[in-house]
Amino acid sequence: MTTPPSPPIGSTPFTLRSWSLEHEVRPLFQRVFDERPQVRSLLLCVAQYWADEADDAVHGHLVLSARDVPRWPHRCADDEHPGDGDLCTYCCARDFNDPRARWVSWDDNGLAIRCWQAFCHEGANQEEDPNHTSVPVVLGRRHEGGVALDFVGRALRPWLDLPTTGLPTWFLQEEASTPLEPVVVTPRPRDEAPFRDAIAAAPFDDGPRLVFADWLQQRGDPLGEFISLSLARPRSEAASMRRRALVQEHAEAWLGELVSCVSPGSADFSRGLLTGASVCFDERTEALASSPAWATVEHLDFAEMSRVTFSTAMTALTSVSGLRREGLHALPPTVTHVACRPEVVLAGLPPQVKALTVAVPFAASAREPLRALLERPELTRLERLSIGLEPTLDDDASPPWELAREVLTWARADVVSIGGWSAGHRRSGWWLECREGVARLSLEGLSTFQSSEARAGLLRALREWGDGPTSVLPAVRVVAVANQLWKPSAEEQASLGRAGVPVEFEGPPPAPEPAPLPPPERPPPRPLPLVVDPISRAVSLPVDATARPVSQKPVRPFTRWFELVLLVAAAAALVVRACASA
Amino acid sequence: MGGLYLALSCLQGRPMRQAFDALATLGVGVQLTPGNEPTPDFARHVAASGVPTRTHHGFSFERRAGKVWSDEGACVASSDSVHPPRHDSPAAEHFSRWLEANPQARVLETMYPGYCLGSGDALEQALTRSVPLAVDVSHLFIQRTAGVLTDGTLRRVLDSPHVVEVHVSQNDGRHDSHRPLRRDSFELGWARERLSSGLPVIYEAYLHLLSDDARRAQLDLVRQALT
Fold first, then answer.
1. Closest chain A C-alpha to B58 CA, distance in angstroms
2. What is the largest CA-CA distance in chain A?
3. In this complex, do A393 and B34 lie within 8 Å of one another by their Cβ atoms?
4. Distance, CA of B24 to CA of A182 (rounded, Å)
5. Structural element, H or E, at residue B45
6. Which residues does chain B have within 8 Å of residue A53's beta carbon, measured at their own beta carbons?
7. To the nearest 10°, the Cα dihedral for A312, A316, A317, A319?
8. Ranges assigned E (strand) in chain B
9. B18, B45, B89, B108, best to mutate vs chain A, most A CBs in 10 Å
10. Crossing angle of helices A400-410/A452-464, nearest 10°?
């Protein structure tokens, strides 16, 4: 089987990624499914390691599972721990020279950089555990003899997912004259303007969107089918798969002129048209803030270094993340939900904000500032307060229950939540949402805060919350909510039931825990030639007197006699000396 | 020009201008290094900022990284300091001849196994030829851990009058991971002496995951350790 030619390296990261998904990831997943019948799901994770030469290689890492979704973070089996039943690239190989460590065989220093770097953590290095360096991006499951791909990654560095993203170093050095492929934005037909105006006038109403969808479908425009699928309730698995395929093919085109400032890897089309996005405004693209294309956007995330700019075109905007101090004064009056860091809260939160998410470092040093923040009076008027724990350097990490306990003890909003927070300003990992004595536990995304330790920490905080002014937990019961990413097995449910707080489960009935995947075959160890004495039953290992390491010189008998004579002489001298002194 | 600098690669992967501005607010110089996304008019922005700068290795205003060594072994970069070639690059086989012919042409950084000038023997040759050196103490730590740098050669490198630039960061001796400094980081005391004698000292740890306060604390740690 030959691999089709890759698109030009100067294509956009989105185009290259679509190619990689179909021609690198899907065949790889199919091969693993074919070779290992017990495997039901696969998780592709990516990590970028930097080097002094700024090569910025992007490495792929695979987790195989007999479950619906592989456990993440994955725990390899070792001499002291049985592992979590899944297998990964490393525990299958144990050695980088083993070809199984190279299952993901794309060009780490080539195409993979431009395809995947926007989804990788910053500052990762090869010394760290893959669970910390890698980010899950694609979930694969068996489907009708083939592979269903589910894109579970979110752009953590949206500025590297734009058409203007620089080409990899290796390419520039080899073919310095090749330019980036220009992105041709095909304008939407003029006669759809009345439909778009109607949608902009009632952005939260599905009616105008469905009318628009019908009109588009009559013209054979795939956007029409996509809007219909997006608004259909309930949505079948087949419809979801078709919808994902359409996004994978058309997301960049549907962004229109916003393609210069919105990362396709972050774009959310959940209501058929652009509903949410991470934006990177700079001096070149800031003018796009007034584009009418923003009219359907309900959630806007400002990337880490984006300028914070709003406009009157953002009529549907209700939620903003990545907000910074400079954007506070211009916050549109429609925005009631804000996600930011503590310094923005300290700068003065506008009274329109009813729901607040504060991102704090998942670090022991964050505990005191967090309590001070929670005691501020302006936080008492909130309806919802969420604390997102951002990853930090390993040696400063705090046990999750300590920070969670601070939140559950001191937060005074009607609804209080705590859980993991990703660099892309989104919930990631386990979340606990507390309201009127009920705590809902759910998995909101795949991240290191998905570990069982993190989940246990949140539940421990529910047991040990202190004597503070919080009103959300007069009596606690936990409702654990299953979803696409987490379907607890019967064994896992039983384990959660031993957490010390009553736990109920919401979702489909539990399935039994699948058998762990068999470890890879290794050559059997050579048995030792032990000899058992038939009378004493003593066990001994016979030594072949003639066997010796190649490098060891033979011991000459003369040397041993000489040593013996010296030893006897020395002993005699000592005896004579002792007698003389006596 | 001496003093304390932050490498632009402390925020590697980010757009040049934003990384530069974030580092410049910390009140020290910036060493322009490869690995950041090019931004328009960055050269003019740097010039207008008034921030002291130096250049390193394949830094380019127009691209993520420029070429440093030609396949024929010539150094084609004009930065204040450069890495010697990697052993697996075509330039490596010409490096000894190039160094013999051009011993003072470039400031060369002390590296680790896998690179030219990545072992004690190679450093001894550089010392013999009076090659101006950018001493990265974290790289020397990797050499020590790999067993390719003796005490004697380490002392000779650190005592050399040909050291013209110093790089500091933390690693565990296996990979050049650019971790934040600790008080016990390898040869930090020596770096302090060199800073006080007027050499430029470049802080090279990754700062992405650190808040502004934590970044300032890192610099305070460096200043505390260095002054």
1. 8
2. 122
3. no
4. 33
5. helix B42-49
6. 34, 57-58, 65, 83, 86
7. 170
8. 3-7, 29-32, 53-55, 108-109, 133-136, 163-168, 200-203
9. B18
10. 40
- CA–CA dist B120, B126 (Å, integer): 10
Model-wide pTM > 0.80: yes
DSSP classification of residue A182: P
Contact A251, A267 (CB under 8 A): yes
With beta carbons less than 8 A apart as the criterion, state whether A410 and A402 touch. Answer: no
Q: What is the interface pTM, i.e. ipTM, of the complex? A: 0.82
A462's tokens: 């529910």
Closest C-alpha among A372, A500, A282, A144 to residue B37: A282
Q: Find chain B residues with C-beta within 8 A of A135's C-beta.
A: none
**Nearest C-alpha of chain A: how many angstroms from B28?**
21
Min Cα separation A495/chain B (Å): 34
Question: What six digits make up the tokens of A418?
Answer: 């705590």
Residues of B in contact with A304 (CB under 8 A): 14
Cα–Cα dist A565/A421, whole Å: 76
Encoding tokens for residue B155? 């002392």
Q: Do A117 and B13 touch (CB under 8 A)?
A: yes
Burial class (CB in 10 A: 0-12, 13-18, 19+), B146: middle
Q: What is the pLDDT along chain A (582 residues), one digit of tens a residue?
A: 466 677 777 789 999 999 999 999 999 999 999 988 999 999 999 999 877 777 788 999 999 999 999 998 898 888 788 889 999 988 877 655 566 666 787 888 888 988 999 999 888 877 778 888 899 999 999 988 899 999 899 899 999 999 888 766 655 555 555 566 777 788 888 899 999 999 999 999 999 999 999 999 999 999 999 999 999 988 888 898 899 999 989 999 999 999 999 999 999 999 999 999 999 998 889 999 999 999 999 999 999 889 999 999 999 999 999 999 989 989 999 999 999 999 899 888 899 999 999 999 888 878 888 888 988 888 888 999 999 998 776 556 667 788 888 888 888 888 999 999 988 899 999 999 998 888 999 999 888 788 888 888 888 888 877 666 665 565 678 999 998 888 888 888 888 888 778 889 999 888 888 898 887 766 555 566 666 776 666 766 655 544 443 333 334 444 456 667 778 888 888 888 888 776
**Tokens (6 digits) for B62:** 């127009």
